[in-house]
């Protein structure tokens, strides 16, 4: 018995010291476990973080389009609109864990497949700085313009990151060229397109594009383009590839004509784009999910109708007025998770 | 180097494959136990295949890094995978059951043996099983299981735990399943 125990103790130590075996095991472990296991020892920490090729392989191994099982359910990064405090929400356990992003006066411009594009300031009216941040590893990189230029001269900044294709990200910067004054919404304008590539760490001028002027906010990177979907108003997108057409219109997301209709939510998940609409009215609580069909002239087609009455009943005293959508995840086999919340303080989270 | 014989379940009866099925080898563990195994099963281990090809075996193949208990398990695996007519589905089911009952210590022994003997399928299966057992466990459980002493100060550990609080959320109890 003693002999057996000492033999497996030495095997454990041999496995712990065998880089090849450890690396392969680490490759299978989800990122969350690796982040935790960095505190096992300095040796493990350096195995996990000090080898860019390992991180690259892990990213590709776990990228959503390659993974076979849907057990790696993503978490949501949420921000309390009152206190500005961040939380991580795990849809399975429904626990809210406080999360700190160490940037002052922070605005998240875009979230793209696990990376964030951040705008922050040192003081409320201070200079704006831009960062690419990986909230899982807390690694971040300040975006710097070419010499003699300012980041703030960009009219729009977009993050492009697809871990199933590459572990490098790109940032697209649009600068209005020519007539700076007298532009109205809806007027065509020429934009200089510059692309920052994290592989070469340089900006590269990519040419000019004629894009109808609109405020460039809440862009979504989807299918090689940047999409601006306005629940009420004109939606459009432009392809990143120079050779494809310039910006194009998308059909407006559908509306429900009902006194209980609430705002629409545009969600990208697992390679699909959805428009989620909530209708909240006593005993007529439901949710409609539309999916954008990019093969068929960018039409929104109805996918699901979810009865929210059971949920609103469990939030009974609250009359359904502050039910909101926190997020939506599309699983690999067309199953999907809607995370719906009511008032913050109650942690009243219901997952369906 | 040709590896045609890695999957001996073929439609055509290859005389060479037939010979391998009837020829037996003897594997000798670190503690001196001897095991008979058909050559067709043994050569699923690339390390053994190389030894057979180099003909340095001389009938008995010594495996000084594998103890008898572990070697017996590995041979069970090899025999199943060399079995005539075992379907892929059957093998997959066997693989799952094969590793499911193993304690961590046994998994470590088998992963080291599979690594040393270069048995890709077994290695993949055991690694996956180890990762599966580990993934929701605490840092303390991992240290105990892998016999690792922490070289972080308590302050450093506390700092990591605070900074990455979300990664510590939903951790299983340390009781081994």
From TrEMBL, chain A:
Stored InterPro entries: At3g26010-like, F-box-like_dom_sf, F-box_dom, KIB1-4_b-propeller
Bilayer-spanning residue ranges: none
Domain (F-box): residue spans on this chain: 17-57
Gene3D superfamilies named in the record: 1.20.1280.50
PANTHER family: F-BOX DOMAIN-CONTAINING PROTEIN, F-BOX PROTEIN INTERACTION DOMAIN PROTEIN-RELATED
Protein name: F-box protein
From TrEMBL, chain B:
Keyword DNA-binding: no
Gene Ontology biological process terms from the UniProt entry: jasmonic acid mediated signaling pathway; protein ubiquitination; ubiquitin-dependent protein catabolic process
Top-level taxon: Eukaryota
Pfam family, any one: Skp1
Region annotation (Disordered) ranges: 1-27
Annotated SKP1 component dimerisation domain residues: 125-167
Pathway named in the protein's UniProt entry: Protein modification; protein ubiquitination
UniProt domain SKP1 component POZ: residue ranges: 25-82
Key words of the record: Ubl conjugation pathway
Keyword Signal: no
Subunit-level organization: Part of a SCF (SKP1-cullin-F-box) protein ligase complex.
Purpose: Involved in ubiquitination and subsequent proteasomal degradation of target proteins. Together with CUL1, RBX1 and a F-box protein, it forms a SCF E3 ubiquitin ligase complex. The functional specificity of this complex depends on the type of F-box protein. In the SCF complex, it serves as an adapter that links the F-box protein to CUL1.
Family to which the UniProt record says this protein belongs: Belongs to the SKP1 family.
Full protein name: SKP1-like protein
Top-level taxonomy: Eukaryota, Viridiplantae, Streptophyta, Embryophyta, Tracheophyta
């Amino acid at each position: 018995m003693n002999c057996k125990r000492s033999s497996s103790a030495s095997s454990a130590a041999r496995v712990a010291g065998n880089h090849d075996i450890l690396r392969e095991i680490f490759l299978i472990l989800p990122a969350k476990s690796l982040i935790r296991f960095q505190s096992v020892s300095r040796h493990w920490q350096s195995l996990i973080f000090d080898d860019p090729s390992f991180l690259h392989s892990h990213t590709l191994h776990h990228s959503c389009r390659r993974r076979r099982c849907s057990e790696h359910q993503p978490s949501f990064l949420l921000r309390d609109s009152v206190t500005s405090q961040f939380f991580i929400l795990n849809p399975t356990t429904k626990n809210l864990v406080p999360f700190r992003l160490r940037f002052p006066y922070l605005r998240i411009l875009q979230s793209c497949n696990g990376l964030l594009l951040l705008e922050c300031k040192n003081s409320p009216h201070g200079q704006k700085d831009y960062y690419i941040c990986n909230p899982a590893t807390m690694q971040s990189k300040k975006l710097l313009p070419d010499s003699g230029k300012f980041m703030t001269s960009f009219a729009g900044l977009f993050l492009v990151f697809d871990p199933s294709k590459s572990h490098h990200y790109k940032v697209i910067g649009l600068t209005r060229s020519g007539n700076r004054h007298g532009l109205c919404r809806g007027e065509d304008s020429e934009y200089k397109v510059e692309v920052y590539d994290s592989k070469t760490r340089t900006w590269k001028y990519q040419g000019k594009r004629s894009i109808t002027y609109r405020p460039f906010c809440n862009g979504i990177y989807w299918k090689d383009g940047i999409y601006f979907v306005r629940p009420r108003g004109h939606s459009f997108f432009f392809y990143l590839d120079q050779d494809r057409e310039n910006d194009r219109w998308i059909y407006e997301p559908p509306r429900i004509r009902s006194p209980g209709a609430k705002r629409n939510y545009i969600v990208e998940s697992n390679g699909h784009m959805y428009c989620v609409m909530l209708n909240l009215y006593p005993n007529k609580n439901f949710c409609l999910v539309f999916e954008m069909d990019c093969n068929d002239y960018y039409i929104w087609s109805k996918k699901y109708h979810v009865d929210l009455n059971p949920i609103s009943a469990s939030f009974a005293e609250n009359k359904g007025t502050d039910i909101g959508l926190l997020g939506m995840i599309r699983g690999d086999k067309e199953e999907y998770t809607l995370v719906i919340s009511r008032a913050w303080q109650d942690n009243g989270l219901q997952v369906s | 180097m040709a590896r045609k014989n890695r999957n001996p379940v073929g439609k055509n009866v290859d005389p060479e494959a037939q010979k391998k099925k009837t020829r037996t080898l003897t594997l000798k563990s670190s503690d001196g136990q001897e095991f008979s195994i058909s050559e067709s099963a043994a050569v699923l281990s690339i390390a053994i295949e190389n030894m057979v090809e180099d003909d340095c075996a001389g009938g008995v193949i010594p495996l000084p890094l594998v103890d008898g208990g572990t070697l017996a398990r590995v041979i069970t695996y090899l025999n199943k995978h060399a079995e005539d007519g075992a379907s892929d589905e059957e093998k997959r089911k066997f693989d799952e059951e094969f590793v499911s009952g193993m304690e961590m210590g046994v998994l470590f022994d088998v992963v080291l043996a599979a690594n040393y003997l270069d048995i890709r399928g077994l290695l993949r299966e055991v690694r996956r099983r180890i990762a599966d057992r580990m993934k929701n466990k605490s840092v303390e459980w991992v240290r105990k299981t892998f016999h690792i002493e922490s070289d972080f100060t308590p302050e450093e550990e506390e700092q990591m735990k605070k900074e990455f609080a979300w990664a510590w959320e939903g951790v299983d109890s340390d009781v081994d399943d």
